[in-house]
Every structure is written in C-alpha cells, then in structure tokens.
Design a protein that fits this description.
Transcription Regulator spoIIAA; five-stranded mixed β-sheet; rod-shaped; 2 domains; alpha/beta; 12 helices; Globin-like
C-alpha cells in the first residue's frame, strides 16, 4: 500500500487503512494482559523494579482500561467526547491508585513508558510478518503516540494536583496542631505559642483563636509565649492585635511566659505591652483569674475531714 495507491484511489486507500487500524485495535484489545506482562518484564529489567511487586487485580484492570482507551483512538477522532470521557475516568482512577500505593510520579511514568514500548513492539511484529505496511505502522503509531501523550499529560496534572492537595491537608493539620486552644476550666483556655510567627501563621493564629474562643464561650484566654525565643516588633504587634480582637468579643486576654531575653528585646525596641496584663507563668495567671483558688476550695470540700 504505497503512495501510488493513495494518489489513484483515495477512498479505497481510506477504507483499507480503516481495516488496518481496526485490525490493530482488535489485537490490542485481545492481547491486553500479554502487553501488560511484556511491559512488566521490560520494567523489571530497565525501570522501577519495586513497582512490579505492587501488581494486583486493580492495577491489571487499570492497565486494560488504558489499552482500551488507546485502542479506541485508532478508529475514532481524537476529540471524540466518548473517548475523552474514558481517558478522564482512567486518569482519575489511576492517579488515585498511584497515591494509595505511594507510587512516585517517576515510577508511574515508567509504567506508561513501557506500555507504549510494548504496543509499538507488538505493531512491529505485525509489520515484520507483513500483515502491516509502513504506512499503516506509521499511522497507527502516530495515533497511539498522540493518545498516550494525552494520557501522560492528563495523568501528570492530576497526580500533581493530588499531591498538592495532600500537602495542603498536611500543612493545615500541622498549623492546627501548632495553635492549640486548650480549655482548662469553664470559660478559661490557654493558647501556648511555640516557634517563629510569620505572616501566614499569625493570620491563622488570629482566625483560629477567635473561632475557638467563640465556640468554647470563653471569658479568659491565657496566651503563653514561653516557647517563643525571639520577638520583634512584628510579633509583638500581632500579639497585641490578638489580645485586642479578643477584647472586642468580650474575652480578657493575659500574656504569660515572656523569656528574659525576649523582655530585654522588647524594652530595647521600645515595644509597650502596658495595655496587656502579663504574668511570669500560666499558674500565676490562673491564680489571678481565681481558677487555682476555686479548684483548691473544691478539693477541700471533697476531702473527708
């Protein structure tokens, strides 16, 4: 089937090419598991050996779905909605499978790389056995490559999106753990702050503290800064704004645990906390509020004389 046939009878050439592509499609659909085995064999030899141990019925089903989607591209228009829907469905499930099995992006792309190689080798065998000519091989190969490239790009986007979502969720969990509002008595809670406070964290501290204070119906909030080793004007301003915001919603804020080095820095910078009640320790603040004495009286009442 050469250029001369194409020039003499384009419709005939198109019909012959359709039959050729349909034949390749049938081969791919029929030999899906064989292609998977071939891809695994090359991957074990040249690629990510650890991925082979993760093969299971779910991964086999995903592989066959990919082969089916690629095979559809041989006889359908690349922009066919039906085919694109299958591709997007496969991308979603494959990226989720990769995340659940802790696959790296590199490892997942290795699978796709050797899948492409297995398909090409199978088409080359058809060519060597003279059941496929150069034109048919190139046409089928081009369509397979376009479909595979689309699958790879879509998979990468979804994989990276999933990774970003996981990182955001982990970051959110870490932030919440780093700003715990701990209720210690009815209407009283402690906010222990540890480490450095940057812009992002200060905004989260403000939002989380106000929300938790409202949820717990607090009257008093003890902000313990014994875990902050350095305090500049920015941190001092943020602490002041937190105390004032609490005041606006009817909550009295106390500051405890200022380290000696921190107090020296505050004085040298001319920072004033005169509108904020400060104590050396959380216990002193609790005593000032009356919680300690109340607990002691309760203990005395419950102690047999």
């Amino acid at each position: 089937m050469g250029d001369s046939l194409r020039r003499l009878d384009v419709p005939l050439y198109s019909r012959i090419m359709e039959d050729v592509l349909k034949n390749i499609k049938d081969i791919l659909l029929k030999e899906g598991i064989h292609l998977r085995n071939q891809a695994d064999e090359w991957m074990m030899t040249y690629g990510e050996k650890k991925l082979n141990g993760l093969r299971n019925s779910q991964s086999d089903q995903l592989f066959l779905r990919l082969i089916n989607t690629l095979a559809e591209q041989l006889t359908e228009s690349p922009d066919t909605t039906h085919t694109n829907d299958h591709l997007q469905s496969w991308v979603s499930d494959a990226s989720q499978f990769a995340a659940q099995n802790d696959h790296s992006l590199h490892g997942a792309l290795q699978v796709l790389k050797y899948t492409r190689l297995a398909i090409w080798k199978r088409m080359e065998r058809e060519f060597e056995d003279r059941r496929l000519d150069e034109s048919g091989l190139l046409t089928a190969g081009c369509r397979i490559d376009l479909a595979m490239d689309e699958a790879i790009i879509a998979f990468m986007k979804q994989f990276l999106k999933n990774q970003d979502n996981l990182l955001q969720a982990a970051h959110q969990s870490i932030r919440e753990l780093s700003v715990p509002v701990v209720p210690v008595f009815d209407g009283v809670a402690i906010l222990p702050l540890i480490g450095e406070i940057d812009t992002d964290r200060s905004h989260f501290i403000m939002d989380n503290t106000l929300k938790r204070s409202m949820d717990l119906r607090l009257n008093y909030m003890i902000i313990d800064v014994s875990g902050i080793m350095n305090m500049d004007t920015y941190v001092a301003r943020e602490l002041y704004q937190i105390t004032q915001s609490l005041k606006l919603i009817g909550i009295k804020a106390y500051l405890t645990g200022l380290q000696p080095l921190v107090t020296q820095t505050i004085v040298s910078l001319g920072i004033s906390f005169k509108e904020i009640d400060t104590f050396g320790s959380v216990q002193q603040a609790l005593e000032h509020i009356g919680v300690v004495s109340h607990l002691q009286k309760t203990k005395d009442l419950n102690t047999p004389s």
